[in-house]
Structures are given as structure tokens and as C-alpha cells.
Design goal:
The protein is an alpha+beta fold and 780 residues long. Among the domains are: 82-115 and 576-681, no CATH class; 325-342 and 683-777, no CATH class; 400-434, no CATH class. A hairpin with a 4-residue loop joins strand 2 and strand 3. Helix 10 (265-278) crosses helix 18 (445-457), helix 13 crosses helix 33 and helix 30 crosses helix 31 (724-742). The longest helix is centred in the middle third of the chain and has 48 residues, at 346-393. The radius of gyration is 34 Å and the shape is extended.
Length: 780
Amino acid sequence: MRLKYLSLSLLSLSLAACSSHVIKTNPAHSSLDQAQRASKALNAVYEYPSFDYSGQVKVNLAQDQGEKTSTLANPEVRLEPEIERKLNQYLAAQNIKLNTAEKQALYKNVAKKDVASLADVLGKGANFVETMLNDLNIQYDGTVNYRQKMASMNISTEYKKPNLLVAVRVPMVVDFNDYKFYTQIFSLVPYLANPQDQDKYAYFDFSKYKDHFSKVNKQALIEYLKQSSATSYALASQDQLQSLRLTDAERQQGIVEKIRLNSSVEELFLQASLYNTVNREYLMQSVFGVDAAAAEQSAIEALAAQAVAEAAAEPAEDSEDERDEATAAMYKLYEAVNKTVLEISDEEDEIAVAETATAAEDATDAAIAAATDATAGSEEDETASEDEEAESTAGALLTEQQCEDLSKNKSSLRMGDVTYCQDSYDIDVFETVSTPSLLELQLSEKSKALTEKFASLGSKDELVTAQRFKQLWSDHQADIDAILVPKAKRNPFIMDISLDQQGRMVKADYDLKYDLDEFDRKLNVKFDMQFKNYGNASKIDRRILNQAKSFKDIFKGSPMQQVFGAADPTSASPAVDFSEYLNQLAEKLYQQTQSYEKTYKAVFIAKLTHDYPQIVKQYSAQDLQEIAAVYAYAYSDEDIYNLKGQALKQVQALQKKHHLQENEQFDHDMGNDVDEIVVEAMSAQKSMLEMQKLLKQYKTTEAVFAHHYAEKFKEDNELEAAQQAEFKKTVNILGKAYVALKNNKFKDSTIASLTEDSVEFIDYAIFKETYEALSDANLK
């Protein structure tokens, strides 16, 4: 089952349960212990046909006062002096000349981190944004009505300062009668709406998921959610639960008891994760009525079918938004030739494209079958050779213990060992010990093993209750303690549940604190909810919903549509990302050095500095040059860069020195990426020089296109003497078509003088290739 289906099913948890559910309005709870009373209070929301709720959220993001420096205080990313010095040494050694501005650009780009800091996320106004977030008040209220199969939520935000007040209220309603989600979108931007629609709701229709909802076992889903809510209290130790003294104001609200759970983010996360894991099969099959394995296979097949359909339909698409310029130009020419010269209608054209796609698919299937047969025939030989290779290289590679020892003592560290330990054992020899994040906790090897163990304990036919889960938790306490960080380092999560005379939850207060070490910040989130009118909730007005329009209709003709319709996605000037910067750097360096080796080494070191600055700090500038030289030799094609004699012996010695001899010791992504960047830079310059030379010779862009196209065409096709005149006429017209397309002046009349005989000389793939070559050389 896809995640969106699962989410929608969870959203309908009680709305679809409605009147068939047993209502208990006065449960006996005096005999229950503290944890049981808190659990039963939480689950009161499932025991009544309706209720109202409200609450508020308060976020505080504060700088860690223990830190002397802050990312926000120094938003500009700077390269460490040691790394900058090594880069300068390398540039000087390789006689690579960069002016001051180019050097600063290099420093800035390699210093950028892939994981954004708070300043990266919020920009230079990070301090202002942080203050605004802390001063923002968020409130919400709404109604849940099971019998009406409806629920509402109204979110209100307010930012108030002495001379500024900003308040926004966004109402939302979900209706499982008509399977629609409603919201008043123009609460946010009323001035962009049509005047007659400013007070109307817009809706999203999700009725196409109706069949998925109908399969849900509603009673089983409610019981699952009840037991899930009870797990935190069932697992709580006595010292984590306490009764709080009530204030006079709380007594006046009808509160008779207040129970606090002192837990942590890490504990609650792991409890919820393992409870969901142990009940996954039950949830999928007994609650949602879906076979997990069949659903996964079905999803794979659906994605594969979609990919095939998109590939087959691609040539027939009319939109140019998703094509590059050369592809779009090629299809314009193709359509114009079919229409003007061959007089093929659009319908006939679509049929021809479909037939071509089918033929291509059949050819692909045949090729795959042939490749499979060939692979099967050589499998045994390859396996034997791999075994022999493994035996011969086993002694050169490190064990897991040796990798762990390297992380403690880096004095004898070699580049190949860094990559091998990371890829083979997931050991980062540069990693420092720190409190793991939630994501690291979830993905750790021990956590994976424990998750797999709990998954095997579940059953598709029986729900694991909170009490049963408590026993499983106890049985695996040693494994759980090994995963959780020490109690002193956990992030606290406090939950206060207030009960009324009937044992129902009337108030819930949550207080979460989390250390954002990577941002030098401490996050504190406080949110609370109040529940009232159990069984007698406020009515949700259907009359307003009946006047709602779909999102598409409500935007029609409005300033909102005009704003987005007039927006030019190409008008923005986005900052150059690091990959694009490397392309530009490679082009400049190759133009300057005319050397694959020097360009590769420079780009490799720039990328290495950006991706792994800790590695650059570990080695000298000379070591970095040597490592880059080995990578250049290992990942280059022989026809581009092929060492012999003394140069080859030197590289082989460097391979041994830096432990870069075996396949597992290389970072293949790094090596291949840099090679691709350099080869592309070389090709671009070669093509540009060729085009510029042709322009001097043939004087006009049209003539250059015609000559280049003709040469490429003749490489694969033989021409008879009688065809020469028609061929020359065709390539000249294609040259005119190129210029017209580049200047947005192409019309069908541009190629009107072509004949059916001319079409024989039009190869659209060569047209596209020539188009790209001239475009790269800026010829118009």
C-alpha cells in the first residue's frame, strides 16, 4: 500500500467508524492504576460520537549559551585556513593561474556544506526569522463528528509587536461522505482572489481513494490506535509517573486528577517505532485488508508500467517544458516536415510514433533476453575468477577491527583505507563521538537488527496489545538499552494529562526539548489541547461547504492565476550550485592547461575539499596531488589519458603508497564524477574550437550547420552521384531551419521547399547533435 493511502486511511480512523461504535459515557476507573487511568483518558476521544477540541503551540528556538560562536553570528561560510593553504600550494605546484576573484570563488564553493546550517536555511536574516518564530502564537480549534463522518480544524496565527499586528485564520474541513477536503485558501491572500469568491471554500476531491477506505476494518483500526496510545504508559516505570497538585482554576474547569509522564524523545520514538513494527502485518492485512507483499509487488509493477508508458509516449508529447532546447527544436522540425512535406495528419503521426515505440520496446526486450543468455553462459567463469581475485587480495584489505583502530589512531591513515572502511563496514574513520540524532538512532545497525527481530514477533491475525508489547519490551531490554543513549543525554518529553470526573481527558499539555547541536540551538516546543462537549459537539455547517468550488475553478480568472500564469521560470537567476561550479572550473582549467591530468587533479581536489574536508586536513598538499594522480589514471579512458614507461611506474608506486590498489579502496562515485566533468569540458572545448574554425571558413552559421550535418550524415550513409544535388539542397535548408529555431522565427514555410526526396536525407538524431554542437559554441 502506498504511503498516501495509508495516511488517508489513518485520517479516517474514526470518521468512518461512526455510529456502529459502542459508546461508554461513564466508565468505572477508580480501580485502575495511574498508568491505566491515563491511557483510558487518552482513549476517551474514541468512545464518544463527537467532541470539540482546541489548543495552542508555542515554539522557542534559542542559541546555546554554552557555545562561544554561532553559525548565525557568522553566516558567511569560510574555508579553514589549513585547507586554504593546501589548496594554494597545489595551485602553485601545478602552475594553475587564478586571479583573486576566481580564488575567492573557489574557496567559497568548496567551503559550502551539503547539509545546510540554520543560516543557510534562513538566510542572512536568520536572527530576525528566529525572533519572529519565537514571537509567533499559533492556536487551533475544531470538531470531530464520527456520525457525520466529518471533522474540522481552524488554525490561527498571530504575530504581535508594539507597532505591528499580523493575524491569519485558515479553516479546514474533511468530509468522508463526499470524500472532499475543504479549506478557505484566500484567508492567506484575500487580495489575490476574485471578489465574489473571497469568502468561499475551495475543495480537493479524493474520492478516487474511496475503495481503499471501504476495505478498512474500522473497529480493528480503533482498537489498534487505542493500544498504540497506551504503550507509553504501559512501559513507564514508577519514577516516570507522578500525580500533580491541582490549582483552583483547574478544579473549576472540572479537573479532578492530573498525571504527568516524564519521558524522552528517544524513548517515545523507539516505543512507537517498534510497536508499529511488531503490528505491521496485522495493520496491513487485518486492518487495511492489504497483503503487504502483494501490495509491494503491485506498486513495483505499476511504477514499471508507468515508466514504460512515459517512455513510449515521450516523442508524442506536445509540451516543451520538460525537454531541452535541442530536443524541442528537433520535434518542431519533425512536425513541420510531416505536416508540410509529407502531409501527415496529427492522428497519423501519433499512430506512427506509437508503432515506433512498440518496435523499440520489442527490440529492447530481445536485447535484454540476449544479454541474459550471454551473462548466464559466462557466470561460472566470472565467479571462478572473482574467487581467485578475492583470495589474492584478501591480505591487502582491512578487517573491521583494523578500521575501528584507524578511527582512534589516524597517524598511519591511507586514502584507500578511508573509502574501504566506509563502504565495507560503514565506519567513518574521521567521525567524532557525539549524541546520535533520531535518524541516526533509527538507521544504526543495532536498531535495524532489533527492528527485524520485532517484525518477526508479529502476526497478521492477532493484535499485539500494549500489555503484550510491554512483555516483549522487557524481554529485549538489553538490546533496547544498547540502542538508547544514556539517560543523562536524552532529550526530555513531558506529557501532562488532566482527567474529569468521568475519567476522560479534558486537557493535555506537552513540553518537548531538543538539542539541535548542528545549529548550536536548543528547541523547545510547548503545545496543549483541550477537549470538551463529549457527545454534544458543535455542528459543522454543510451549507457553506455546498457553495465551495474546486481549486481549479476558484483560481480561474483571478489575480492568482494571472500571477502564476505570467511568471517566467527562466527569469530568475538562481545561484550556481557546486556541480555547475565544477563544470565551469573544469572548462576554464582545461582551456588554460590543455591537460586531462592537470584538470582532473584540480577538479578532484576541489570536490574532495567540498565533500570531505576532514580528509584534506589529514594529508599534505603533496599527498593530495598524488592521490588525485592515482584517481586520474584509474578512471580515465586509455584513448584520453594513457601512461607508459616511467610515468606508469610512478603512479603504480603511488597506488601502493596510498593503498589504492584494489577496487574496494576507491570511491567510485567520486572518481567517475570527476572524469565525466573533465571529459565533458574537453569535448565542449574541442567542439567549440571546431565550430569557430568552421565559422571562419564558411562565414555564416547556416553554412557551418550544413557542413557539420553533412559530415556527420556521410559517416553513416553512402550517397550516389545523382543524390548529391538534393542532399546539398536539404542540408542548406536545415541550416536555415537551425538559425530560425535559435532566433524563435521558425515557421513551416522555412522548410516548404523540401520535397519527399529530401526527407531521405533528414536524420533527426544528427540534426539534434549538430544543433547542440553549434549551441554550445554560441552560434546563432
